[in-house]
Amino acid sequence: LDERLPLKKFSDFLPVVGIKPELSLGEGDTPLLRLGCLGRKQRLSYLFAKIESQNPTHSFKDRGTAVSIQKAVALGFKRFGTVSTGNMAASTAAYGARAGLETYVFLKEGTSRMSLMAAGVFNPHLVTVKGDYGCLFYESFSLGKKNNIYFSNSIDPFRIEGYKVTAYEIFLELGNGAPKYVLVPLSSGGHLIGLMRGFEDLKKDGYISSIPTFIGVQAEGCAPLARAYERGESVYTRIDKAETIAHSISNPDPPGGNVILRMIRDHGGIITAVSDQEMLEAQSMLTREEGVFCQLESATTLAALLKLRHGLSLKSTDRVVLVLTGSGLKSVPSLESAGFKSRELSLEELSETRL
Amino acid sequence: LDERLPLKKFSDFLPVVGIKPELSLGEGDTPLLRLGCLGRKQRLSYLFAKIESQNPTHSFKDRGTAVSIQKAVALGFKRFGTVSTGNMAASTAAYGARAGLETYVFLKEGTSRMSLMAAGVFNPHLVTVKGDYGCLFYESFSLGKKNNIYFSNSIDPFRIEGYKVTAYEIFLELGNGAPKYVLVPLSSGGHLIGLMRGFEDLKKDGYISSIPTFIGVQAEGCAPLARAYERGESVYTRIDKAETIAHSISNPDPPGGNVILRMIRDHGGIITAVSDQEMLEAQSMLTREEGVFCQLESATTLAALLKLRHGLSLKSTDRVVLVLTGSGLKSVPSLESAGFKSRELSLEELSETRL
């Protein structure tokens, strides 16, 4: 049973020894799904989606939290915490509960009720903090030191190590190969750093000859890294006011930003941004045409592909992977306005209706 | 990639030939998680949960829909449908969209907005039907014949075949063994029938020497099968009015009911019922103590174990599996009333607070 754990399977690549399987919630090992319908439309025979919603708390964050919690417990911490606007809050609260640690979740003011509850059910200390989110991020580390709390924030190095596993899985799922392109939503930068490092590991060890081209995707209303990338700058400028419905990737001052800019430049990657409308349309395409209901933020990947398709040097046989980071269920409250209509009929009316 | 598909892996046991991987959404292969904390409290060293929320639409229904859709496409149907109150609606709509079939979802009057939307996003024909739900179930088959729609309802034989795979996975995850007890929520009966058949297959082929004892769990407010079981009757009596918050298992007239009663009697199984309060407490225990946030209905399994624990002949080394059928995220709207509290602090106040 334990050998099935991705953390065990790939432990040679991870900075953790003596992995405790009882701290796992069964993260990882998610499907790489071929998108046949969308692929045909884009003339891509090998378009894939990595379905991260099939993690324990329905987002990729679990992969990172799974490594952080191993470290926190190994270091003897009794308290665990994070600063988050959504997915990471639920993930951290879940793994904290699993490990029996006292857990602190610091939320941004205005965090949605859905996010609050998805974390709150695990019974952490929930604290909504008024003030600058970027400052809170750094403040949490000194609070952690003072109060003996291991803060596993978005760019915690052990969290990032967990994201490497996604790269190893994609490699195996493609029959020991690397895709040509990997598209991933870009917020703090931790996820993209982890994915790039994972493929770098594979190259270093001779499993692949070149690493994929990475495309990090931001929301136009909050795109400090896409702006810096376009201008060829190696240091990003923080955004004053984020305006996007893609809250999970709305980070005006991404802590891993400059590392990302350097890594993307070194590897010939791309950073781009898409509009809220483009995301919504891409989310709907994935749902209606492929049966894959992902979080709005995850759909930035398809939106970016549609936008960049003709500018990319892509043969129809090239493999392209969209990393769909979270579940559409978390978007449901925000879809209320979409107003799905259900026809109402009596059983008698139904029997007489031609369908 | 395709070989990883559970339907391929276990195809010798399934009535489908020429499985089309493009119809799959990556169902199955869910974790079997050891519940260490709850296990210790119950003096059970090997208490496990099968985490069915890690399926594509976050419930066990996907395993069944995955087989039904193979059959529907193989038979040449262009239309697919179901009658459901929740999870099955979303699952059917997702697989229908994936296969490019026109999909019909008949919902019971009063279906929650969350359920409506979780299915609606895939763009099926949604029809809310006023009138008797039991009648609608049977009516759908004649509607299907008339309109060339393959209705994959709760006891569709191919759907049930899909649930057998869960038994095979548990067997493998336990290192080629069967648990002593398997607890599963009980509504229409399809899921439990599939699980029992799966273990029967394993016994027939000599992989295990005896099949587990099954415990089917209903909600006290809608427990036609538990009532019949307690009275030793082989035919259940339909319930006039269901009164429970566990909507997903609130079926007053379960179509597979009499088959279940016979199978449970043949195998020495048990059918029991738990109250809404017991479910809520069990859901909270799983969430807070194990980090596993399951649907309320899934928590009936733990509630039943707590209730029956001392009446069961259980050694501390016996293996017990709770089948957690769906994700807690689907319960979030109904948890609104639970009123999670978040402390509100400014960044300055936070810095000065002793945590």
Brief rundown of the structure:
The first copy, chain A, has 355 residues and is α/β, with parallel strands linked by helices. The first copy, chain A, contains 14 helices and eleven strands. In chain A, α5 links the parallel β4 and β5.
The radius of gyration computed from the alpha-carbon positions of chain A, rounded to a whole number of angstroms, is: 20 Å
How much of the sequence lies in strands of chain A comes to 15-25%
Oligomer state of the chains in this structure: homodimer
Could you estimate the helical fraction of the residues of chain A in percent? 40-55%
Give the tally of β-strands of chain A.
11
Identify the strand order in the major beta sheet of chain A.
1-2-10-7-8-9
Distance between the termini of chain A: 48 Å
Largest interface: A-B, 91 and 91 residues
Low-confidence stretches of chain A: none
The run of helices and strands of chain A is HEHEHEHEHEHEHEHEHHEHHEHEH
Would you tell me the structural class of the helices and strands of chain A?
Answer: alpha/beta
Query: Mean of residue pLDDT of chain A?
Result: 92
Characterize the biggest β-sheet of chain A.
6 strands, mixed
Shape of chain A: globular
Determine the number of helices of chain A (DSSP H or I, runs of at least 4 residues). 14
